[in-house]
Recover the amino acids of this structure.
Protein backbone atom coordinates (compact mmCIF):
# COMPACT_ATOMS: atom_id res chain seq x y z
CA UNK A 1 0.00 0.00 0.00
CA UNK A 2 1.43 3.37 -0.94
CA UNK A 3 0.03 6.89 -1.16
CA UNK A 4 0.56 9.73 -3.59
CA UNK A 5 -0.90 13.16 -4.33
CA UNK A 6 -2.34 13.56 -7.83
CA UNK A 7 -1.80 16.80 -9.70
CA UNK A 8 -3.52 17.74 -12.91
CA UNK A 9 -1.42 18.64 -15.92
CA UNK A 10 -2.36 22.26 -15.26
CA UNK A 11 -0.46 21.95 -11.97
CA UNK A 12 -3.45 22.14 -9.64
CA UNK A 13 -4.20 19.34 -7.16
CA UNK A 14 -6.82 16.88 -8.42
CA UNK A 15 -9.49 15.85 -5.95
CA UNK A 16 -12.89 14.33 -5.43
CA UNK A 17 -15.56 16.22 -3.47
CA UNK A 18 -15.40 16.19 0.32
CA UNK A 19 -17.17 13.26 1.94
CA UNK A 20 -16.67 10.96 -1.05
CA UNK A 21 -14.25 8.07 -1.33
CA UNK A 22 -13.70 6.22 -4.58
CA UNK A 23 -12.40 2.68 -4.96
CA UNK A 24 -11.54 2.02 -8.62
CA UNK A 25 -10.87 -1.58 -9.68
CA UNK A 26 -9.08 -2.58 -12.88
CA UNK A 27 -9.87 -5.27 -15.45
CA UNK A 28 -10.92 -8.52 -13.72
CA UNK A 29 -11.09 -10.87 -16.74
CA UNK A 30 -12.67 -13.89 -15.11
CA UNK A 31 -10.50 -13.89 -11.97
CA UNK A 32 -13.22 -14.21 -9.34
CA UNK A 33 -10.59 -15.23 -6.80
CA UNK A 34 -8.73 -11.94 -7.17
CA UNK A 35 -11.96 -9.97 -7.14
CA UNK A 36 -12.90 -11.60 -3.83
CA UNK A 37 -9.56 -10.57 -2.39
CA UNK A 38 -9.99 -6.96 -3.50
CA UNK A 39 -13.53 -6.77 -2.12
CA UNK A 40 -12.25 -8.11 1.20
CA UNK A 41 -9.57 -5.40 1.28
CA UNK A 42 -12.13 -2.73 0.51
CA UNK A 43 -14.43 -3.95 3.27
CA UNK A 44 -11.54 -3.98 5.73
CA UNK A 45 -10.56 -0.45 4.73
CA UNK A 46 -14.13 0.77 5.17
CA UNK A 47 -14.40 -0.91 8.56
CA UNK A 48 -11.17 0.71 9.75
CA UNK A 49 -11.79 4.09 8.11
CA UNK A 50 -15.53 4.72 7.55
CA UNK A 51 -16.51 7.22 4.86
CA UNK A 52 -19.76 9.21 4.49
CA UNK A 53 -20.04 7.90 0.93
CA UNK A 54 -17.88 5.23 -0.67
CA UNK A 55 -18.37 4.38 -4.33
CA UNK A 56 -16.77 1.35 -5.95
CA UNK A 57 -16.05 1.85 -9.66
CA UNK A 58 -15.32 -1.20 -11.80
CA UNK A 59 -13.62 -0.35 -15.10
CA UNK A 60 -15.01 -3.12 -17.31
CA UNK A 61 -13.66 -6.31 -18.90
CA UNK A 62 -15.14 -8.60 -16.27
CA UNK A 63 -15.25 -11.61 -18.58
CA UNK A 64 -12.98 -13.63 -20.94
CA UNK A 65 -9.44 -14.98 -20.57
CA UNK A 66 -9.70 -15.98 -16.89
CA UNK A 67 -11.46 -19.13 -15.69
CA UNK A 68 -14.61 -17.88 -13.96
CA UNK A 69 -16.42 -15.10 -15.80
CA UNK A 70 -19.81 -16.27 -14.56
CA UNK A 71 -18.72 -15.98 -10.92
CA UNK A 72 -17.30 -12.51 -11.52
CA UNK A 73 -20.63 -11.25 -12.84
CA UNK A 74 -22.44 -12.92 -9.96
CA UNK A 75 -20.15 -11.18 -7.44
CA UNK A 76 -20.62 -7.78 -9.07
CA UNK A 77 -24.41 -8.13 -9.24
CA UNK A 78 -24.48 -9.09 -5.57
CA UNK A 79 -22.13 -6.25 -4.66
CA UNK A 80 -24.34 -3.71 -6.41
CA UNK A 81 -27.25 -4.76 -4.19
CA UNK A 82 -25.40 -3.98 -0.97
CA UNK A 83 -22.92 -1.22 -1.89
CA UNK A 84 -22.74 1.96 -3.93
CA UNK A 85 -21.22 0.66 -7.16
CA UNK A 86 -20.64 1.91 -10.69
CA UNK A 87 -19.96 -0.82 -13.27
CA UNK A 88 -18.55 0.41 -16.58
CA UNK A 89 -18.66 -1.37 -19.91
CA UNK A 90 -15.51 -2.90 -21.37
CA UNK A 91 -14.93 -4.02 -24.94
CA UNK A 92 -15.13 -7.68 -23.89
CA UNK A 93 -18.68 -7.30 -22.60
CA UNK A 94 -19.76 -6.05 -26.02
CA UNK A 95 -18.65 -9.34 -27.58
CA UNK A 96 -20.87 -11.48 -25.38
CA UNK A 97 -23.98 -9.44 -26.09
CA UNK A 98 -23.23 -9.29 -29.81
CA UNK A 99 -22.64 -13.05 -29.94
CA UNK A 100 -26.19 -13.68 -28.73
CA UNK A 101 -27.49 -11.70 -31.72
CA UNK A 102 -24.80 -12.54 -34.26
CA UNK A 103 -23.19 -15.95 -33.60
CA UNK A 104 -20.70 -15.50 -36.45
CA UNK A 105 -18.79 -13.04 -34.27
CA UNK A 106 -17.39 -16.09 -32.45
CA UNK A 107 -14.63 -16.22 -35.06
CA UNK A 108 -13.38 -12.88 -33.71
CA UNK A 109 -14.42 -13.23 -30.08
CA UNK A 110 -12.56 -16.51 -29.58
CA UNK A 111 -9.23 -14.71 -29.94
CA UNK A 112 -10.19 -12.54 -26.95
CA UNK A 113 -11.00 -15.36 -24.54
CA UNK A 114 -14.54 -16.35 -25.50
CA UNK A 115 -14.03 -20.04 -24.84
CA UNK A 116 -13.19 -19.46 -21.17
CA UNK A 117 -16.38 -17.43 -20.78
CA UNK A 118 -18.55 -20.00 -22.54
CA UNK A 119 -17.13 -22.81 -20.42
CA UNK A 120 -17.80 -20.86 -17.22
CA UNK A 121 -21.50 -21.03 -18.19
CA UNK A 122 -21.33 -24.74 -18.92
CA UNK A 123 -21.30 -24.27 -22.69
CA UNK A 124 -18.71 -26.45 -24.44
CA UNK A 125 -17.30 -24.63 -27.49
CA UNK A 126 -15.46 -26.18 -30.40
CA UNK A 127 -12.75 -24.58 -32.50
CA UNK A 128 -13.45 -23.87 -36.16
CA UNK A 129 -17.20 -24.11 -35.52
CA UNK A 130 -19.25 -23.77 -38.70
CA UNK A 131 -22.22 -21.36 -38.80
CA UNK A 132 -24.66 -24.02 -37.58
CA UNK A 133 -22.43 -24.87 -34.63
CA UNK A 134 -21.99 -21.18 -33.82
CA UNK A 135 -25.76 -20.75 -33.78
CA UNK A 136 -26.11 -23.71 -31.42
CA UNK A 137 -23.49 -22.27 -29.09
CA UNK A 138 -25.25 -18.89 -29.02
CA UNK A 139 -28.56 -20.61 -28.25
CA UNK A 140 -26.92 -22.61 -25.46
CA UNK A 141 -25.40 -19.47 -23.96
CA UNK A 142 -28.76 -17.71 -24.18
CA UNK A 143 -30.30 -20.53 -22.11
CA UNK A 144 -27.41 -20.66 -19.63
CA UNK A 145 -27.11 -16.91 -19.09
CA UNK A 146 -29.22 -15.84 -16.09
CA UNK A 147 -31.56 -12.95 -16.73
CA UNK A 148 -29.80 -10.93 -14.04
CA UNK A 149 -26.49 -11.34 -15.89
CA UNK A 150 -27.95 -10.18 -19.18
CA UNK A 151 -29.60 -7.18 -17.53
CA UNK A 152 -26.32 -6.32 -15.83
CA UNK A 153 -24.44 -6.44 -19.15
CA UNK A 154 -27.08 -4.40 -20.96
CA UNK A 155 -27.08 -1.60 -18.37
CA UNK A 156 -23.33 -1.05 -17.95
CA UNK A 157 -22.34 2.63 -18.01
CA UNK A 158 -20.06 4.26 -20.58
CA UNK A 159 -18.08 6.36 -18.09
CA UNK A 160 -18.31 8.01 -14.69
CA UNK A 161 -17.20 11.45 -13.51
CA UNK A 162 -16.38 12.39 -9.93
CA UNK A 163 -14.63 15.65 -9.13
CA UNK A 164 -11.50 16.04 -11.23
CA UNK A 165 -11.56 12.43 -12.44
CA UNK A 166 -13.23 10.60 -15.30
CA UNK A 167 -13.38 6.81 -15.07
CA UNK A 168 -13.62 4.85 -18.32
CA UNK A 169 -12.57 1.49 -19.69
CA UNK A 170 -10.06 2.29 -22.45
CA UNK A 171 -9.61 6.05 -22.59
CA UNK A 172 -10.78 9.07 -24.56
CA UNK A 173 -9.87 10.62 -27.89
CA UNK A 174 -7.70 13.75 -27.55
CA UNK A 175 -9.22 16.95 -28.87
CA UNK A 176 -12.82 15.77 -28.47
CA UNK A 177 -14.88 17.18 -25.57
CA UNK A 178 -15.47 14.56 -22.90
CA UNK A 179 -19.24 14.87 -23.38
CA UNK A 180 -18.90 14.04 -27.09
CA UNK A 181 -16.73 10.92 -26.95
CA UNK A 182 -17.75 7.93 -29.09
CA UNK A 183 -18.38 4.52 -27.54
CA UNK A 184 -15.80 3.01 -29.89
CA UNK A 185 -13.08 5.17 -28.36
CA UNK A 186 -14.25 4.76 -24.76
CA UNK A 187 -14.07 0.97 -25.20
CA UNK A 188 -11.17 0.47 -27.60
CA UNK A 189 -8.77 3.41 -27.95
CA UNK A 190 -5.09 2.83 -27.27
CA UNK A 191 -2.14 4.61 -28.89
CA UNK A 192 -3.73 7.97 -29.70
CA UNK A 193 -4.82 8.24 -26.06
CA UNK A 194 -1.78 6.68 -24.40
CA UNK A 195 0.74 8.83 -26.28
CA UNK A 196 -1.08 12.11 -25.70
CA UNK A 197 0.66 14.29 -23.11
CA UNK A 198 -1.77 17.20 -23.00
CA UNK A 199 -4.74 17.75 -20.75
CA UNK A 200 -8.14 16.08 -21.12
CA UNK A 201 -10.01 18.38 -18.73
CA UNK A 202 -10.11 15.55 -16.17
CA UNK A 203 -7.59 12.98 -15.02
CA UNK A 204 -8.62 9.80 -16.84
CA UNK A 205 -8.62 6.62 -14.73
CA UNK A 206 -8.67 3.67 -17.12
CA UNK A 207 -7.79 0.06 -17.83
CA UNK A 208 -7.79 -1.87 -21.14
CA UNK A 209 -4.04 -1.80 -21.77
CA UNK A 210 -2.19 -4.11 -19.35
CA UNK A 211 0.82 -2.76 -17.48
CA UNK A 212 3.03 -4.46 -14.88
CA UNK A 213 2.60 -1.59 -12.41
CA UNK A 214 -0.04 1.14 -12.26
CA UNK A 215 0.96 3.83 -14.76
CA UNK A 216 0.56 7.27 -13.19
CA UNK A 217 0.74 10.27 -15.52
CA UNK A 218 -0.29 13.92 -15.08
CA UNK A 219 -3.28 13.36 -17.38
CA UNK A 220 -4.22 9.70 -16.79
CA UNK A 221 -3.81 6.68 -14.50
CA UNK A 222 -3.82 3.14 -15.88
CA UNK A 223 -4.80 0.48 -13.32
CA UNK A 224 -5.09 -2.58 -15.57
CA UNK A 225 -2.31 -4.79 -14.21
CA UNK A 226 -3.25 -7.84 -16.31
CA UNK A 227 -5.03 -9.78 -13.56
CA UNK A 228 -5.73 -12.90 -15.62
CA UNK A 229 -2.03 -13.35 -16.46
CA UNK A 230 -0.19 -11.71 -13.54
CA UNK A 231 -2.46 -12.56 -10.62
CA UNK A 232 -2.56 -8.87 -9.69
CA UNK A 233 -5.86 -6.99 -9.62
CA UNK A 234 -5.34 -3.33 -8.75
CA UNK A 235 -7.60 -1.17 -6.59
CA UNK A 236 -7.04 2.59 -6.49
CA UNK A 237 -8.56 4.57 -3.62
CA UNK A 238 -9.15 8.32 -4.02
CA UNK A 239 -10.29 10.59 -1.19
CA UNK A 240 -9.96 14.34 -1.18
CA UNK A 241 -6.67 15.07 -2.93
CA UNK A 242 -4.95 11.84 -1.88
CA UNK A 243 -4.70 8.45 -3.54
CA UNK A 244 -3.41 5.09 -2.46
CA UNK A 245 -3.38 1.54 -3.81
CA UNK A 246 -4.94 -1.11 -1.59
Amino acid sequence: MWKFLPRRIEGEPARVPDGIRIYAIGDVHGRADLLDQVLTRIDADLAAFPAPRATQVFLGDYIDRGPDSRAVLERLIGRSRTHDTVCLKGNHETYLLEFLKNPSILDEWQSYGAFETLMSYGVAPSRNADPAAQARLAAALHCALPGSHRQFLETLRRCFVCGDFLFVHAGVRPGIPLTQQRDEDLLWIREEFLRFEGGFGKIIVHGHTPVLEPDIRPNRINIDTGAYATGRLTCLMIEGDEMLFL
The radius of gyration is 18 Å.
